[in-house]
Structures are given as C-alpha cells and as structure tokens.
Amino acid sequence: MEEQLETRELVVLEGSGVFLRGTLHKASRQDAESKTGLTERDRVGIVFLNSLSIPRASTGDSAVYWADAFAACGYPSFRFDLPGLGDTPGILATNLLDFINGGGYAAITSAKMKELVERFDLSGVVIVGHCAGVVTAVHAATSCKECKGLILMDPYFHLTKALRPKIRQILSEWARRSRIGGAISDIYDRMRDIRRTVQKGPLPKNANFPLLAHWKRVASTGLPILMFKAPGLKSPGMKPRLGEFDYLEYTLALAGHKGRVEVEFIEGTDHSFADRVGRVAVRQRATIWLSEFFPPLGLQKAAQEVPSLEDRAGDGKTEGSQLYAPPLRFEKGTETTTWM
Q: For a FRET experiment, which of 77, 97, 271, 316 has its CA 20 to 30 Å from that of 61?
C-alpha cells in the first residue's frame, strides 16, 4: 500500500480561479533516463477525462488500472474530475449529457491542458476519453495545441439520451429474453434499415453535426488517434446493428488521406471495458501505440522493436493511411491483474 501511494500524488490545477482536482500517477524512471540526463520535458503525459458523471476512477477503477500501467511504462498519467464531477467543485448543467454533447467542457479542458503541460514541464498530452468523454476530448483537441494524440473508447457521434423511456427499457429486456420478442425486434431492425436507405441526406437527423465537424478538423490533420470499439447489442463485430448508421465508416472517411486513425475491436468485453478482458486488451494495445508514436524516456530502443503499422496490419485492409487491422482477441482468464 505504501509503495502504491508513493507512486501517486493528489494534484490541483487552479489557474484562472478554476479548480480541477485529480491524481497524478508518477512515471517510472528508467536507468537509461538518468544516464542520458533527459528531463520531464521529453515526456508526454496521459490525461483521463470523466465519462459523463462517473468519477475519475471510472467503472471498476479501470482508469486507475490503466493510469498505473502507463506510468509504469514511463508516461506520467493524470486522472481529473471536471467541474461539478467527483472531487472538483462546480455546478452541473441541468441536462449534463446535452451540455457535454455540445462541447460544454471543451474550453476548460483545453485551458487546463496548457496549464498542466507548463506546470509539469511536459512536451504535450494524450487525452483519453470514454463514451461521453470522447465528445469532450475531440472538441478540446481542436483548440489545444498541447494535445499530441487521442485515445477514444467506444465513441458515439449521435445525440443520445442518458436514460431511455421506461417502456422502451421493458420492451428491450423482453426482446432479449423472449423468442417472439426477438423476432419482433429483428423485424423492427429491418424496417429501420429500409427507412435509413431511402431517407434523404448522408447522415441521420440525430447526428451530432458539431462533433463531426470537430472530428474532421482533428483527424484530418494527421493527429495520432487510437479508437477502441466494444461489441454492441446485435452488432456483428465493428459493423453497427441492422438499421443503424455506420458512424465508424463515416468518421474514418472524414479523416481523409492524412488521417492516422487506428481502430481496435475488443471481443469479449462490454461498453465499459472494465472487465478483465477489456482492461488487459486496452492496456496492451494502448501501450504498443504509445511506444510507437511517443517513445518514453530510456525506451527508444525498445520502441524501435515494436512492429510498424504495416507489419501489424498482416492480412488487414489498409485504405489510405487508415488502418483496418484484424481484431484483437483476448480470452477471459488469460491474465490476472490487481489494482488499488
């Protein structure tokens, strides 16, 4: 316990009178680093944002696990609570999800990333967003020159409601448990698919158009972006459910020929990535990606041994500079992990 606490520190960003409370996971210092005399300035920090109203530890302390893992690889990692969330004071918007979907936290996030880089003498940050946190991360990245990369977990690009009407929840549960309900659900999906194919315009009416515009501005510049996709209900792999718009294909196209967007589908996990399969897969894949684009101090030689994008693609399909690699598969029970 004492050893774990020595590797962490509570931090407060208080510039411009706006407070953010969070936790720093201190980067491990390699022997090679002390010999080269390299400084913190050479480091890229990893910053985790809240997912909707979930505190900075995230579901099942998954963000704690990933921050510890990245810090052990040489990346100082930070978990912050945005205003009104967790330990950070503030007044929440009446409709928090609408506020986030409109980029409400983007300005404060961008300003605090600048403050963070200056205070800890970093070369930049990689912002990690999960679900609603993806919206904040993408909005902030357009005005944050300190942002050097994004890790986006199960992003969505449409306007959604935090809670579905109770009747829809009941019908959805019935459809999953009943053979008749399942058949009716399949018919409903086919009807939605027909309606979608004949509707006018390339995007659904509930698309988050401002978010897609920010995404295009960010992704088309060549900013390194790693995207994780979890299996969805009645969704075949990375493809959407029948009748739903394929936002993944659309956003990859928006990235254009300069885009450096990698998508990883993690089989056997869920939307939170908080189970053992999800935690381990995200840690392993993100560590490889970080080593390739942002080699940590003292580990440049090890980073050079990491396979290139082309080598990792294998039989995957590459379109432009966007990588479609075969999905990673991590079986449950293959690794035991413990965290605080």
A: 97
Gap between the Cα atoms of 173 and 156, Å rounded:
22
| pLDDT of amino acid 247 | 92
- Percent of all residues in the chain with a pLDDT value above 90, rounded to a whole number: 60
Give the torsion through C-alpha atoms of 271, 274, 275, 281, to 10 deg: 90
Residue 149 lies in a domain: yes
182: containing domain? 163-205
Q: What is the pLDDT of residue 233?
A: 72
DSSP 235-294: --TTSPPTTS--HHHHHHHHH-TT-EEEEEEEET--TT--SHHHHHHHHHHHHHHHHHHS
Are 116 and 97 found together in one domain?
yes
Co-location of 265 and 295 in the same domain: yes
Instruction: Tell whether the model's pLDDT for residue 241 goes beyond 80.
Output: no
pTM assigned to the model: 0.76
CA distance 189 to 186: 5
pLDDT at 193 over 60: no
Measured from the Cβ of residue 304, the count of other Cβ atoms closer than 10 Å reads 11
| 218 half-sphere exposure, CB direction, 13 A CA radius | 32
Do 25 and 138 sit in the same domain of this protein? Answer: yes
Could you give phi then psi for residue 328, rounded to 5 degrees? -75, 145
Indicate the pLDDT class of residue 319, thresholds 50, 70 and 90: very low
- Tokens, residue 265: 């589908």
What pLDDT, in 10s, does the model give residues 194-238? 455 555 557 888 899 999 999 999 999 999 999 999 998 766 677
Structure token pair of residue 169 = 């929840």
Residues 65 and 48: their CA atoms lie apart, in Å, by 12
**Among 80, 79, 72, 78, which Cα is nearest to 27's?**
72
Helices 209-219, 247-255: crossing angle, 10 deg rounding: 40
**What CATH number does the domain containing 38 carry?**
3.40.50.1820
Q: What whole-number distance in Å separates Cα of residue 88 and Cα of residue 21? A: 5
